[in-house]
Amino acid sequence: MARIVGLLLAAGQGRRFGADKLRQPLADGTPVAVAAARALNAACPESIVVLRPEQDELAGLIEAEGLTVIRSAAAHDGMGYSLAAGVAASPDADGWLVALADMPRIRVATLRSVADAIANGAALAAPTYAGQRGHPVGFAARWRDALMALEGDEGARSIIRRNAGLLHVIGTDDPGVLQDVDTPADLAALG
What we know:
- This protein is an alpha/beta fold and 191 residues long.
- It has helices at 32-43, 56-64, 79-88, 108-119, 144-148, 157-162, 184-190, and strands spanning 4-9, 47-51, 68-71, 95-100, 124-129, 132-133, 137-140, 167-171.
- Strands 1, 2, 3, 4, 5, 6, 7 and 8 form an eight-stranded mixed beta sheet that branches.
C-alpha cells in the first residue's frame, strides 16, 4: 500500500491575527492547530508537523496528540521552506497530504479522499467546494525534488499552476476546505 505522509504546516507568523492564532481556542476549547492536527492524523496516521524552532508550547500540544514535530529555522522565511522541510523529513514517502494548521474545520473524510487519490495514482489532488479549489493538496512522490527546492512564501502554488492538467479535483460538500483563520473575525465565524 502507498505510504502517504501528512504534512501540517504550522510555522507561519500569523501577523494578520495579531497573536498566535494557532493556539487560539475554537468554540470547544481546542486550539486551532490541535484541531487541524487531529483531523490530519486521523486521515494520515503518519503525519509530521512543521514548526519554527521557538514554538515550544505548540510543539508540546502537537506531540501530545501523537504527531511528529520537526522544527525548521528556515520556516521564518516562508511556507515554501516549511513544505521543503516536511518533505525532506519523509523522503521515502510515496506522496504527501499537505494541510495548513490554520484550517481546523476540514473533515477527516475530505482529508482521506485527497490522500486516497494520491495513493491510487493521481499526480496532484485537491478538493473543491462550491466551485473553488481548497485545501489540503496531495502530491505524488514524483514532485519530491520540486517540493524540496521550494523557497519563499508561495508554497507549492507554482507546481500546481504549471501542472494544472494533472490536478485530480475532488468535489466535496465540505466548506472547511476554504475556511482559514487569518483574523479574529475568521476565528469567530468558525464557531
